[in-house]
Write a structure and sequence with these properties.
A hairpin with a 2-residue loop joins strand 8 (about 305-310) and strand 9. The chain has helices at about 30-45, 65-70, 75-80, 95-110, 135-150, 170-175, 195, 225-240, 255-260, 270-275, 330-335, and strands at about 115-120, 160-165, 185-190, 215-220, 245-250, 280-290, 295-300, 305-310, 315-320. By secondary structure, it is an alpha/beta fold. It has a 9-stranded mixed β-sheet with strand order 3-2-4-5-1-6-7-8-9, sandwiched between helices. The radius of gyration is 20 Å and the shape is globular.
């Protein structure tokens, strides 16, 4: 990779060299400032720090010269060989990641999986939740949802793919920018209002959003409001399950619900989702980073096993693998510390 095309830490899609051709994002960059300006109005009440679309972060990729220099260092070779197992095909950047996501999804669809989860960090491949502001994460997710949905763009299939965004404002943003001119059916999961907040508004049924011609449902990053995942469950129960139409949750941060982040005493509906709904998901692609002295990555690409990885030099090696998903607590407290 040429030095001029390296994505440096903290570099954005708007500040990279213009002669660089990055397939995933090259057609989407021009709309990012507009998206962030619109979303900033929505988030300003809870986030006083200013941000713009020019701050969207992307993962880093080392230059070939750096890789060769490190690979020729005997100390680095010893470090790799002293660790366990073999190198893992972990993505170097978001172009490679999205190809893996698409391949994993196609394999899951071929195996007739109906309820699927895709989850990975959007603030950089080595980032964790909270490293990047929520609005920037959502902007990047919108770009990547558009790229992901190319899986359903052959023939007239796009017109039979319904993409649900968290709320009405996100749909408007997507329609005016990233998804402008596409045939995808754009919809929303929630319609926030003051009356709804106090329980006096009229509740919309998710089934009323669905047409008989719809074949696939994609729910884009439904984590900003707890009602969004509740709407996803209703969509699955009332519209997708009986008709065996696939439903895919893209970066929904389901780990928040799995881990008990929302106490079931105060959020009984989410507690019910954790017990009865989330176990039905097939996680087709997943990356979760752990920082600290015993850092590492929990990684899965369908139909492969769940792997706990650690970066040594410029490679990811597999420390542990198993057929089922371990809890984040198990990885952080038991698996990773055993390989210090």
């Amino acid at each position: 990779m040429a030095a001029s095309s390296i994505i440096q830490p903290g570099a954005s899609a708007l500040t990279r060299h213009r002669n660089v051709d990055v397939p995933v994002l090259r057609k989407l960059e021009t709309a990012s400032v507009h998206i962030e300006c619109r979303r900033f109005e929505r988030l300003s009440a809870t986030n006083s720090r200013r941000f713009s679309g020019a701050e969207v972060l992307f993962g880093t990729r080392r230059s070939l010269q750096d890789r060769e220099a490190h690979s020729q260092n005997p100390a680095n070779l010893i470090a790799v060989s002293a660790s366990t197992s073999s190198s893992v095909d972990f993505p170097n950047d978001y172009d490679e990641l999205m190809e893996q996501v698409k391949s994993a999804t196609k394999a899951a669809l071929k195996d007739s999986k109906l309820l699927m989860e895709i989850e990975f960090p959007t603030g950089g491949l080595d980032s964790v939740p909270g490293d990047v502001e929520g609005g920037i994460e959502m902007s990047t997710s919108m770009y990547l949802v558009r790229e992901f949905c190319r899986v359903f763009s052959d023939g007239d299939r796009a017109g039979r793919t319904r993409i649900f965004f968290p709320d009405v404002s996100e749909v408007e943003s997507a329609r005016e920018n990233i998804f402008a001119g596409t045939s995808f059916k754009l919809d929303y999961l929630t319609k926030p209002s003051g009356l709804n907040d106090i329980g006096l508004g009229k509740k919309e049924k998710m089934a009323d959003h669905v047409l008989a011609a719809d074949e696939v449902f994609v729910c884009a990053y439904p984590y900003f409001n707890v009602n969004e995942m509740i709407a996803v469950e209703e969509l699955y129960r009332e519209s997708a399950q009986a008709t065996r139409r696939p439903l895919i949750v893209f970066n929904g941060e389901l780990d928040r619900i799995r881990s008990g982040y929302y106490p079931s005493f105060f959020y009984p509906k989410l507690g019910s989702l954790a017990k009865n709904f989330l176990p039905k998901f097939e996680t087709v692609y997943y990356i979760h980073n752990f920082k600290g002295q015993s850092g590492g990555v929990l990684f899965r690409a369908y139909p492969g096993p769940w792997q706990v990885l650690r970066r040594v030099d410029f490679k990811y090696i597999c420390l542990h693998e198993q057929p089922t998903m371990p809890t984040l607590k198990e990885v952080a407290l038991n698996i990773l510390p055993a390989y210090r």
